[in-house]
Amino acid sequence: MEFAGRINVTFFHASDGWLDRWKKQYNISFKTVSGEANACTSEMVALLEETMLPTILSKHKLNQIYNADKFGLFYRLQPNESLHFKNEKCVGGRHSKLRLTGFASANALGKKFPMFAIGKAKSPRCFKNVKHLPYRYRCQKKIWMDGTLLEEWVREIHWQFTKEELKIVLLVDNCPAHSNDSR
User: Fold this and answer.
1) Going residue by residue through the chain (183 aa), what tens digit of pLDDT does each one get?
2) 157-161-162-167 Cα dihedral, nearest 10 degrees
3) Taking the C-alpha atoms of 111, 11, 168 and 166 in order, what is their torsion angle to the nearest 10 degrees?
4) Which pairing describes strands 100-107 and 116-119: parallel, antiparallel, or unpaired?
5) pTM summary value
6) How many CB atoms lie within 10 A of CB 19?
7) What is the rounded CA–CA span in Å between residue 168 and residue 66?
8) What does the alpha-carbon distance between residue 77 and residue 137 come to, in Å, rounded to a whole number?
9) Which of 31, 87, 139, 170 could potentially form a cystine with 122 if both were Cys, beta carbons 3.0 to 4.6 Å apart?
10) In the 8-state DSSP scheme, what is residue 109?
């Protein structure tokens, strides 16, 4: 509710019961985010939330505010927990490190751009008879979203906004691929 108020959405009303049922329906739980320790201080976050972000976002409509983020998809990773009989050992093997990097983006109203996937193989065998993918695929030696791939993605989506004469805000994390030139 607080976030809805910050972005001037007045038609959304949710009770604690509604939120609890929604989280249960979509299997969502509240967990502590970790993985980028010390990426920024709480003072930096407070400054951004209280002054900079509202100033920037207040100048744009919801259909102009986009968020983009990358994620790792470990497609052969086995679960680290399993149901088993009490008298039997539950022994696992080595963890697979085979992965793809995905990059997804949507605006505040839910309009999505086609996903961008990054893999190691230039022409994966699984694409052999595929004529059209529902996402963009590129190869990169380390399977990372680097500055070149990010710039390619931005150029691919840029034409949509220029033909509509629409300026957008694109929120991305502090990944090194997101250089000052692309901000």
Assistant:
1) 666 677 777 776 777 887 788 778 777 766 654 555 556 778 887 888 888 888 888 889 999 999 999 999 888 887 766 666 666 666 666 777 888 999 999 999 999 988 889 999 998 888 888 888 888 899 988 988 888 888 888 888 888 788 878 888 888 887 666 565 544
2) -120
3) 90
4) antiparallel
5) 0.63
6) 12
7) 7
8) 21
9) 139
10) T
Q: Which long-range contacts does 51-60 make (Cβ < 8 Å, 24+ apart)?
A: 54/6, 56/169, 57/6, 57/7, 57/169, 58/8, 60/167, 60/168, 60/169
Q: How far apart are the first and last CA of the chain?
A: 29
| Contact (Cβ atoms closer than 8 angstroms) between residue 133 and residue 127 | yes
Tokens coding 68: 């983009």
Torsion 66-181-148-132 (CA) sign: positive
Instruction: Return the bridge partners of 170, or none.
Output: 66
Three-state DSSP class for residue 150:
helix
Q: Any alpha helices (H) in 101-146, and if so which ranges?
A: none
Count of CB atoms within 10 A of residue 183's CB?
A: 7
| Cβ-contact 68, 170 below 8 angstroms | yes
Calpha distance 155→181 (Å, rounded): 13
What is the rounded radius of gyration, in angstroms, for the C-alpha atoms of the chain? 20
Distance, C-alpha 29 to centroid of its chain: 18
